[in-house]
Amino acid sequence: xxxxxxxxxxxxxxxxxxxxxxxxxxxxxxxxxxxxxxxxxxxxxxxxxxxxxxxxxxxxxxxxxxxxxxxxxxxxxxxxxxxxxxxxxxxxxxxxxxxxxxxxxxxxxxxxxxxxxxxxxxxxxxxxxxxxxxxxxxxxxxxxxxxxxxxxxxxxxxxxxxxxxxxxxxxxxxxxxxxxxxxxxxxxxxxxxxxxxxxxxxxxxxxxxxxxxxxxxxxxxxxxxxxxxxxxxxxx
Length: 236
Hints:
Blueprint: E1 7-11, H1 16-27, E2 31-36, E3 47-51, H2 57-71, E4 76-79, H3 94-122, E5 125-130, H4 145-164, E6 170-177, H5 190-194, H6 205-216, E7 225-228
Parallel strand pairs: 1-2, 1-4, 2-3, 4-5, 5-6, 6-7
C-alpha cells in the first residue's frame, strides 16, 4: 500500500464517537489505525484494527509499530478513549481513581509520545484530544471531579504540546464536547440531558467528528480547545 496516503490513529474506536471519527477520516481518504479493547477486525483494507487496553504502554507500542508497518507513516492521532465516572467526590474509590487516570491520562501519554516521534520523521502531524466541557463548566447534579482532574489535564497538555512543537510542524488541539447522544446514554435520559445545554438539546456524535475534521483542515490552528457543547461553556 502506498505510503503517500495519510494515516490517522483513533483510540476508543470501537463504537460511538470514536467510530464516527474513523468513518470521517476514511471519507477524507485517510488510512486509519483503530484501537479499543473490543474493536473488531475490519474488512476495509484502509482500516487496521488493534484490540487492547490503551492504558497499557504495550498497547500503545503495538498500535504505532503495527500502524507504521502496515501503512508506512503516522500523520494524525485522535485521543478519543476515555472513561467518565459520575460519583460524589467522597464516594470515589481507589479503583475509580486508577481507572480514570489509566484510560484518560496514561492512555493519552504513552501513545501520544510514540505518535509524535513518528510525526517528527515527516516534519508534520496533528494530535487531537477529546476532553469535556465539564472542565470549564461544572454542572450541579453531575459530579465530575475525576473527569475534570484528568480531562482538564489534557486541555493543559494540549496547549503545552502546541507550543513545544509549533516550529516542528506538529499541531495539538482538543475538542471539548457537551453531552452527546451515544451508546453511553439511554434514550429515556435524552430530554433531561438535552435541557442541560443552552440550545436545549444534546449533541450528535457527528458534531464531534466534524469538529475533528475542521481542526484537521485548519493548519493555522494549534493549541485550541474547541468547545462543541451547545453553549454550555458560555454560561448557564
